[in-house]
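Task 17 of the worksheet. Students: predict the tertiary structure of the chain below and write it out as structure tokens. Keep your answer in the requested format; marks are given for formatting as well as content.
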Amino acid sequence: MPTPLTITGERTVPGVVAENYWFRRHEAGYAAVPGWVSSTPGVVLDAGCGEGYAAGLLDAAWPGVRVVGVDYDAATTTHAARTHGGERAAYLRGALTSLPLADGAVDVTVSLQVLEHIWTPGDYVRELARVTRAGGVLVVSTPNRLTFSPGLGRRERPSNVYHCREYDADELGDELSRWLPGAKVDVSGLGHGQRLAHWESAHGSVVTAQQRTGPEAWDDDLRATVGSVTALDFDLGDAGDPSLDLFAVVRLPS
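Model answer:
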């Protein structure tokens, strides 16, 4: 059995109770992807694949799809290949601004919670488009600056040491259109569904509650709530405040 990856605070992994909220929030993002793609793809790229679990989620939606995961960290891609690799899932080490794939090699590219980590975001987005076929779809997500870093202005350096730049919805859409002229860009937002919203009306932010102390100091209610979260506890809707994560669907010209 492969050794679990270290939790860095930016990469989430399955099977850890204290990490369940963040994992399910990521899972909800991957679950939304098939709804934005009109036909079943043959090959999907997961750019910045992390632990690699998305291959199983995408295969559940598109049985038989082939998934290629790329990540810069060698230990991560080795773990992903051992844990999730197979006939229809392969993992490669590579820079996301210089992907080890041919032009137009994939039908759909997914890159979730990566954009904010990239120093040269235009290069990164154009590289995602290069390896995606004409008429294909890119799905890019990033934290909503308005809720993730309240008070932070556009292009101001985030306090999160892992982030190079954070975006609001209008900025994200405008930048993607500038980096990929001719593409059609739609931006939506992921937020809490009714159950988590009800919990927050009584207790305050579930994110803040988790970050206030270490998991060992959580009370029973918070621990139970975090442990019970599923992907269905998140809804897609308006891209503005108070959405948590922004999702941009980019349809490339044919």
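Marker's comment: The beta strands are 43-47, 66-71, 89-93, 106-112, 132-143, 184-192, 234-237, 245-251. The chain has a mean pLDDT of 94.
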